[in-house]
Amino acid sequence: MATPKIILQGGGEHARVVLDCMLSQGANVVALFDPKYTGHLFGVTQRGAYDPDFESDAVAIIAIGDNAIRKRVAEKTKHKFTNTVHSSAFFSRYAVMGVGNMVLQGAIVQAQTTIGNHVIINTGAQIDHDCVVEHYAHLAPGVILCGNVNVGEGAFVGAGATIIPGKRIGAWSIIGAGAVVIDDIPDYAVAVGNPAKIIKYITP
Predict the structure, then answer these.
(1) Which of 83, 139, 157, 200 is the most exposed place for a label (fewest CB within 10 A)?
(2) Which pTM value belongs to this model?
């Protein structure tokens, strides 16, 4: 069976990690698309702005760290999507996920967890049993979700943050690095500290 051709949308810092993840496992990445970049990255051609007619049989990943931008780009992408799960990650056979997801080096996804579409589970992030991570969320390096946590669409959980069991992180909210979340966080809230406190709200 032929190795599927893969394109990445994005050429910045996060794309470098995703591309490295994929190339280390022998993925056939044929192009990067980002209007800010040309030349080559790790031997893969950077082709500028996205071309929906390029290699129409290829599949895509949106390798962009910003959740809102990743959503906008995904909604305009004509190619079908795939996932990447690094070989050093643990992804339970009893967990499920959609498409366009990036499960990076050393991440852990435990049983009965549900991952939506275009989610980033970054380096060393840990998701325990029965969690739900909705579309376009981003768990930064070292995040810990204890059991039965729900992370809403587009939420960003900063590096090293811990969410105790059974809590909900609202859609498009931001949890600061190192925060310890012991209460539900509403949609569009920004929460920081230990224990995490809401410091402001983002205008949708």
Answers:
(1) 200
(2) 0.96
